[in-house]
Amino acid sequence: MKSKEYISHSERETLELGIELGKSCQSGDVVLLHGDLGVGKTVFTKGFAQGIGIREPVSSPTFTIVQVYESGRLPLYHFDVYRIADVEEMEEIGYEDYFYGDGVCLIEWAELVSEILPENCVDVTIAKDLEQGFDYRIIRIENSRMICGK
Length: 150
Prior knowledge:
Helix content: 10-25%
Shape: globular
Strand order of the largest sheet: 1-7-6-2-5-4-3
Distance between the termini: 18 Å
Number of strands: 7
Largest sheet: 7 strands, mixed
Radius of gyration: 14 Å
Mean pLDDT: 90
């Protein structure tokens, strides 16, 4: 599997990288999105959804755990597990149907449910470097055949 690091200087560049990754995803892909609060995970996710062909507004499902978007070429199951108390909550929503279904899963804060994640997930890590500027981001994509050409 490939690994590559990208530099983003703006929200637009972060969005565009998300679009490129979304265009190359396939049914059954599980993408884990890592990064601190405020690094641009939601911006990246909006681009990812656009890359799949989803045109409806995308927001973080912080209070609902999972948001389902079915208007693109593939369904997108967007998880935010930041407020998960334990893995049993994931079992209650039927996570296996999403993880092993026909769509694509994008999971924010996946490290909180690491024991139930499938093998061969794609890891996307977004980090700030304020010394380089307020909008500067380092975006690392690992374990992926979906490396963008940028």
